[in-house]
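fyi for ur records
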Amino acid sequence: MKKIILSLYLICLTAFVFGQEMNPCSISKSAAYSKPSKKSRAGTNDNILMSQYDVHFYYVDLNVERNTTVISGSTTIGTTVMSASLDTFCFELNPSLVIDSIEYNNQNLAYTRVGAITYALLPSPQTQNTTLSVKIYYKGDASITGAGAIGDGFSTGTSASWGNAATWSLSEPFSAYEWFPCKQFLQDKADSAWVFVTTDKTNKVGSNGLLEGIDSLLPGNKSRYRWKTHYPIDYYLISVAVAKYVDYTIYAHPAAMPNDSIPIVNYVYDNPATLTNFKPRIDSVPMVLEYYSELFGLYPFSQEKYGHCMAPFGGGMEHQTMTSIGNLGSFSTNSHELMHQWFGDHVTCKTWKDIFINEGFASYGEYLAYEHFRSLAAAQTKMLNVHNDVLTDPTAMVYFTDTTNVNRIFDSRLTYNKGSAVVHTLRFVLGDSLFFNGLKNFQQNFSFSTASITDLKTSLENFTGKNLNNYFSQWLFGEGYPVISAEYASDGTNLFLKVTHTTSSSVTPLFKTPLELKCASASGDTTFTIDITQNSNTLIIPTKKNITGLTLDPKNWLLNTVGTISYNPALISLSLDNIALDNSIRIYPNPTTDYLQIENSSSEMTTLSLFDWNGRRLQHQTLNALTIVDISALAKGVYLLEIRNATGKISRKVTKI
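which gave:
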C-alpha cells in the first residue's frame, strides 16, 4: 500500500527537541483541551445585547508581572450603537476579577454581574450610530485553571528548559474575557487596539502592533510599555507576554517593498544560551515571510512588525503581529505561525466551524516552506506523514458543527492534518497558477475581515471560473477517503485502463477527482492525469509505449490508499463501445446487504441480468436512469451482474454481505 500507517507516538515524544520538524502547534492546542473545560460563554440574551453594538477599539491598560497572574488596571471599549436604541452595555469578564467601577462620559454606571456577564446600565438610551466609550476598572487573579484556551487564558510559569519566568495570555478560542472585558464575537473585529502594561523595570513586555514608547515610572522602579496596533484585530488575537527578555530584531525585505523593510522583533529569554540556541531558526523567518508575501500578497501588517514572544508552553499561538511561542527551534512551527498572519489574522474564520480557514492553510504553509526552502522530497515526506495520520480514521472529516467542543475545534488529525492534506488536493485540482492567484484574490476579497469555508468556495469559483462543488462536498464537507485500484494492459500503442474505487465511509460514496498516473516503460516513465467521474472508469489512452508498470497518485496529491494494481491482458479486447457503456453505469453500494442502486446515463435501451456463480440467471430487467435491484432474499456471497445494450456488454462482481 502506498500509505503506510505510522504511529505519532514517537513524534509526540520529541516535540520539544531542537530542530525536530513537526507541528507542535496542533499537538499543544489539542492536548491542552483534553482537560475539563471551565470556559464561560454568553447566553442567547447576552449575545443579543452585545450584538447591539460594534466594537471599534480596545485599550487595555494593566499592571502585570512575570511571576503572577494577579493583575490590575482598566480596559476601555470603544463602540458604535448598531440597534435603534441601547440602554444596557453588556460584556464578558472573568468572574474572579473584581470590578472597581465602570465609567461612561465621566459618570459611574450602575451594573450587575451574573457569572461572567456584566450588565452596565447607561444613563439614558443611546440611539443608532452613537459612539460609546466605556471604561472598566478591575483587579484580581486572572487565571482560571482548566479554562477553554491553550494553557488557560492567562498564565504564569517557568521554562523547564531555560529557567525563565513569564506571564502570558492565550485567549483562543473563548478566553480573552479571562483577562480583559470584551465581546467575544469573531465577526466583530476591533479597528485598532492599544495594550499598555506597567511592570518591573527588569521585564520587557511584548504585544500587538508597534511599541510606541517605554515610560519610566517613579517611584516603584516600574516601566510602562505602550503597544498600539492600527489594523483590525479579533478579540482572541490581542495578547500580552511579560518576562526578562532580550530583544533580537531582524528585518525582512519583501519584493513588494523595494525601499523598505519589515522588522521582526523577537523577545527571547535573557538566558545567554537561549538566543544562541535559537538564532539559526529565527534568522530563517524573514525569508519565509518574503516567500509567503510573493504567494499570497504582501505581509498584511507590513506597516507594523512581525515577531515572537517566548513563553513556557508547548507550540505557538498566532497573536497578530507577534506570535507567542514556547520553542523557536522548529522550522515547521515558525512557518505555521507565520502563515497564520495571512490565514487566521488577516482573514479570520467567520465561525469556529470554519477553523479550516485558519489551521488548514497554516498547516499547509509548513509544506510550502519545506518545498521551497528544503526540497520537494522533504515536503513529500512531511505530507505522507500527514496522510498516514489521517488514514487511521476512516470517517475523518474537516467540517463540524459543535463549536462548544473545543477538543474538536483543534483536533490535530481532523483540523490540522486533514485540513493540510485537502489544501494540497485543492492545489492539484486548480493547478499552481489558479491556486496561488486564487488565494491571493481571496486574501484581497476578505482583507481584515472574516470568511467561511463557503466564502472561500465562492471566491475561488468566481476567480478561477471552475465549479468546485465536488471538491468541497467530498474533501471538506464529506467523510473519509477513496481506496483506489487499477487494472491495466498495453499493446505498445495504447494503454487499456480500468480504475475503480471504494471509499472508507458510506457518507461519501464517490470521489470525483483528477488522478495522476505514472506509467513505467523501457523508454522512460510517462505521467498524465485522468478524471475520475464514478466508482469505475475505463479508458483507452494512446501511449506509443509498452507500459510495464503503473503507479497511482505518485506525488501524494490525494488523501487515499491504494488497493490493488494488476496487469490484465483481457482489457486489450475492450472496445470503445464497451468503455462508453462501462462509464455510463454507476453501481452502489457494493458490498451491500439488501439492495443495489444502479445509475444509468446511457441514452440507449440497457438491460441487466444477475447471475450466481453457477451461471443461473436470477434476475433480468431493463435499466432506467435509476434502478433499484432488490437482493435481500439472496444468500450472502458473490454474484455477477451483466449489463448490455445494442453496442456493448460489461460485467461487474456484486457482493452480498
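The first strand starts at residue 53 and ends at 63. thats all i got for now
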